[in-house]
Design brief:
Largest sheet of chain A: 2 strands, antiparallel
Distance between the termini of chain B: 81 Å
CATH class of one domain in chain B: Alpha Beta
Oligomer: heterodimer
Helix content of chain A: 40-55%
Organism (chain B): Hippocampus comes
Strand content of chain B: 25-35%
Structural class of chain A: mainly alpha
Strand order of the largest sheet of chain A: 1-2
Keywords (chain B): Nucleus
CATH topology of one domain in chain B: Rossmann fold
Low-confidence stretches of chain A: 316-360
Number of strands of chain B: 12
GO molecular function (chain B): rRNA binding
Number of strands of chain A: 6
CATH architecture of one domain in chain B: 3-Layer(aba) Sandwich
Distance between the termini of chain A: 141 Å
Family (chain B): Belongs to the RPF2 family.
Mean pLDDT of chain B: 81
Pfam families (chain B): Brix
Number of helices of chain A: 8
CATH superfamily of one domain in chain B: Brix domain
Low-confidence stretches of chain B: 282-287
Chain lengths: 360, 295
Amino acid sequence: MSNMATASCNVDELLAQAERDEAEKLRSIAVDKELELEFDLGNLLACDKNRLETRDFTGEEKHDFLRSLARDNTQLLINELWKLPTERIQEAVVAKLPEPTTPLPREKPPPRPRPPTKWEQFAKLKGIQKKKKTNLVWDETAKEWRRRWGYKRAKDNTNEWLIEVPQTADPNEDQFVKRITAKKERVAKNELNRLRNIARAQKLKVPGMGLTPVSRQSKDDLVRAASVARTSTASVGKFQERLPKEKPAKGTGKRRKFQPVIGDFSAEKDKQLELLKMMESKRPKLNVTKAVNKQMREDDREEAAARNSKRGKQAGRKGRRDNAAPGKGKGKMGARGKKAGGKPQRGKPSGGKKSKPGKR
Amino acid sequence: SKLKPKTKRSKRFLQSRAPKLTENGKSAMIMKGGNANQTVSQALKDIVRQRMLPQKNITRPFEDSTSLEFFSKKTDCSLFLFGSHNKKRPNNLIFGRLFDFHVLDMIELGIEKYVSLSEIKMTKCPEGTKPMLVFAGEAFDMDNEYKRLKSLLIDFFRGPSVPAVRLAGLEHVLHFTAVNGKIFMRSYRCLLKKSGCRTPRIELEEIGPSFDFVLRRTHLASDDLYKLSHKQPKALKPKKKKNVSHDAFGTKFGRVHMQKQDLSKLQTRKMKGLRKRKREVVDDGESPKVAKVDS
C-alpha cells in the first residue's frame, strides 16, 4: 500500500516536473510584447512599434536596456524565420524567403516597352509561336554534331568546289559569284530591316533606299549621300552653295517627263501618230546594229573592271569584284544597274526604237 | 549623345547599367567631405568595412548636388554616404539616395557618441553576411522624417536580395532605436543556443560599431517624385489567373464558361430501344425492346 502511495507521488511529481520543463523550454524563446511586431521576412526586417519608456534611457542602464530590447526583437524575428519552409542543400539547412514587402524606390525609372517589330506583329496576327530549336544539328558529311549557324556549322556551302548549273540558268553565268551576291543581298536586306525596326522603336526617320549604312562606303555612296543631304532643305537644294571641289551629282534629274495637260496639243498628236505608224510599219522591233554595239560596249567595260581589279589585287588590296555592295538602291536593281554599265538609270530599253516621251 | 558600344563587352556593360525590369542591387558611394576629422573617417570606414577611403571631396550636398549626381552617373551608384565635420555641424554623416541620377532623399545625422569596431574586442561576423534589421520606437511609424529615414536605412543596409537564406548563417543584427529625439544604432552578433525546441534561443554579443545619432537637416523628395520612383513596371506584377480559386483546404477550383446548349440536340449514349420509330408501333400492348446494357 505504501509502495503504491509513493509510486503515485512519484508520478505526480514527474508530471509536474515535465510540465515545468515544457514551460521552461517555451519560455526560453517566448517574448512578451504589447503590440505584435511587423515582419518583412524578404528583407530580414522586423519593426517594433511598442512604446519605449524614456526613463530606461538614463545613464548607464541604456546600454543594457538596448541590448535586452534587441535580444527580444531578434528572438521574435528568428521565431518567424524558423517557421519558413526549409530545404537541405549540401548539408546546409536553407529557408526559402518570401518576396520583400517593404516598398522601396527603384534606382532608375522602368524601361519603356519597345514596340513590336514587323515580324512580331505578323506572328501575333497569325498566331505563330516561337519554336525552340536544338542547339546542334547532325551533319551527314562530317558525321558529327555541329552548331546550327556560325563557325563550323552543319550545312556550310561556302567552300563547295562544285556547283551544278541548273537547267534554267544561263550557261555562261558564274554560279559562285551568284551565290556570293545573293548572300550579300540577303545580309543587306536583313540589316535594312533591323535598322527600320530600331527606327520605328525610337520614332526616327530612316533614309529611303540607297542610303542605309554600309560597312565600307564607296565614293559613289558618299556622293549620293551628300546630294541627298543637299536636296533635303526647304527649297530642295536650290540655294545650297557648293563646296569648292564638289561636283554636281550624276543621276539626278527627272526620270519621266510628262506633256502639259492644257495648251497646245499638236506635239502630243504628232507623237501618237508616229507611234501608230511604227506599229504598222512591220519593221523588226530589234535594231540589231544598236544591240550589238551596246553589247560590245558592255563587254569592254567589264574587261576594264576585271583589269582594274587584277591590278588592285596585285597591289595588295582585296579584289573588289563586286565593288560597292548593293548599297545602290534595291539589291537586285543594283546588280542589274552594274550590268548596264553603272550608267544613270534612264530607263533606256534594250534596243528597239520605241519612242519614249523622254530624253533621247 | 549616346555612346555606341564597339565591343560585346562594352555592350554588356552598358546593358547592365540601362534601366531594367528587375534591377541590380543598389551600390553606395562613400565620400569624405573637405574637413572630415578622425571620428568621421573612422565611422565611414566602419560602416562600410573598407580599409581605404577615397580622396577628400569638397562639396556640400545640401547646397549643390550636381557633383553628387555626376559621380553617381559615373559609378552607377544610387546610394551615397557623405561624411564631414565643421564647427556648426560636428561629426556629420549624410545618408542619401538617388533616383534616375537625381537626388531623391538626403538625411543628415550627427554622431553624438561613437564606439568603433576596433574598440569593441569581439570576434566579428564574416563580411558580406546579410544582416537582420530591427527598428524599434514609435517614431519610425509616426513621424514622416523618421519613416523616410527608416526606408533609407533599409535600402542602405539590407544587402543583396536573395531567394533563400541559410538558417545557421543568420549572424548579424543591426538594431535601430528611435527615442527621445535620438537614434541609437547597435550592431550585434547573434548566437543561436539550444532551447529544447526547434527554434533556437538568441543571445546577442555586441560587435560594433555603435552610434548615437541625432537627426539634423533633411531633404526629402516631394510626394509625387517619391511615388514616381516607386512605380513598378506592369510586367513585374504577378499575373492573376482568372477563373481559378482555392478553398480553405487548398483544393483548386476552376470555372468553365459555356455557351447556351440546345438540350434536345445533346449527344448522349445511344439506346436503341428509345429511338423514335419511323413506322407506327404495331402492337399497342407490347412494350419496346429493352436495350442491351453493356456491363
